[in-house]
């Protein structure tokens, strides 16, 4: 993975050079429209809680495609159910040849957690490796403890989903069917012997 510093935060590029994700603080993003345009940002993920809606909002709806995700920076917040929506949005952007920026109020906890989740799933990394990768490019990230724990819990979830998607479960399921069939045949043989 090649990386480039862009806009106000991190830009991770895939093998084809498409920007995978970026994040930064609200101030860095809102006041630097020219930098966003120069960086080629086409899509923006705004991560906020409802009380932040008046200042973390689509500021340039005619220029960028937005995804608004309501997540509180709280240890009681469940982020796992937001990950597929964010990852799908980022993936769609990349398929269109765009670049995506992920931001919250400070660019430290919520947005970092979503970027880490994307890196984990799309590059097959553990939480620890994805965290290190993202932190090496934006030192100040620090997902709250609950988010970090949830991301560690997310690792087997995304790996199971990928295994299923790649057909690895179909072989296992076929093996189970074969085993069930063999057991049924053995039972039939036993019934024949009893008669």
Automatic annotation (TrEMBL):
Query: What SMART domains does its record include?
Result: DSPc
Which GO terms fall under molecular function for this chain's record? Answer: F-box domain binding
Q: Which family does it belong to?
A: Belongs to the protein-tyrosine phosphatase family. Non-receptor class subfamily.
Q: Which residues form the Tyrosine specific protein phosphatases domain?
A: 77-138
Q: What are the GO BP annotations of this UniProt entry?
A: negative regulation of SCF-dependent proteasomal ubiquitin-dependent catabolic process; regulation of ERK1 and ERK2 cascade
PROSITE patterns the record matches: TYR_PHOSPHATASE_2, TYR_PHOSPHATASE_DUAL
Q: SUPFAM superfamilies annotated for this entry?
A: (Phosphotyrosine protein) phosphatases II (SSF52799)
Q: Which organism is it from?
A: Pomacea canaliculata (Golden apple snail)
- Pinpoint the Tyrosine-protein phosphatase domain residues: 10-160
Protein name (record): Tyrosine-protein phosphatase domain-containing protein
UniProt xrefs under InterPro entries = Dual-sp_phosphatase_cat-dom, Prot-tyrosine_phosphatase-like, STYX-Interacting_Phosphatase, Tyr_Pase_dom, TYR_PHOSPHATASE_DUAL_dom
Which superkingdom heads the taxonomic lineage of this protein's source?
Eukaryota
Q: Which Pfam family is one of this chain's hits?
A: DSPc
Instruction: Name a single GO cellular component.
Output: nucleoplasm
